[in-house]
């Protein structure tokens, strides 16, 4: 599998590329955001390791442009920026995962391999919670007929909650499904749920993704009772 490393610290990028090559990956490296975007946009890569503080085009912008172009290649951000809002912005821009420098190399490899996994079976093609509709076969999400772009991790969390249909799912359960190699860090779930709310609820003035204090999260049909007979438009 081919990996693209986008990092302006050349020595670091080369060391990282050597390590990933030893793990069996084919690795290309570039050192600015513009070049990273152009190479990633070809769709030739299985995953992208992306720094945020890049010349010519920031990592935030690279991720956002790729998603706007319809490129769904998994992106893991690897950065020295350690603020909570930096992480949220990266995830909102379209990144699938976020790892801070200095980092554990085995953890990075495990996260890349986790991102590369794909479900082998889909049990139901379409899941609807009110006017929030997920098409599992095409990995499309829409609310009230409006298409919503989600990253791979966001999709996984939303699908788990949607299939639970109003039942509370614990943070630990979500973490175990979406981050099998990070079973102790529920902050990963909290950050991604925050991003999900900004995508599926906030633009529509909704509160369907609920936090149940001390228990976890659940996804509900929060429409007024009088509106629940109206079918979601195709």
Question: Which helices and strands, and how do they pair?
Answer:
Layout: E1 2-6, H1 10-22, E2 26-30, H2 33-40, E3 47-50, H3 59-68, E4 75-79, H4 84-93, E5 97-100, H5 105-116, E6 126-129, E7 132-135, E8 140-143, E9 146-148, H6 152-164, H7 171-178, H8 187-200, E10 209-212, E11 216-219
Parallel strand pairs: 1-2, 1-3, 3-4, 4-5
Antiparallel strand pairs: 6-7, 7-8, 8-9, 10-11
What does this structure look like?
- It is a single chain.
- With 234 residues, this protein is α/β, with parallel strands linked by helices.
- The chain folds into 2 domains: 2-116, Rossmann fold; 126-227, Arc Repressor Mutant, subunit A (Orthogonal Bundle).
- It has helices at 10-22, 33-40, 59-68, 84-93, 105-116, 152-164, 171-178, 187-200, and strands at residues 2-6, 26-30, 47-50, 75-79, 97-100, 126-129, 132-135, 140-143, 146-148, 209-212, 216-219.
- A 5-stranded parallel β-sheet has the order 2-1-3-4-5, with helices on both faces.
- A hairpin with a 2-residue loop joins strand 8 (140-143) and strand 9.
- The chain is globular, with a radius of gyration of 18 Å.
- The N and C termini lie far apart (37 Å).
- Residues 119-123 and 230-234 have low confidence and may be disordered.
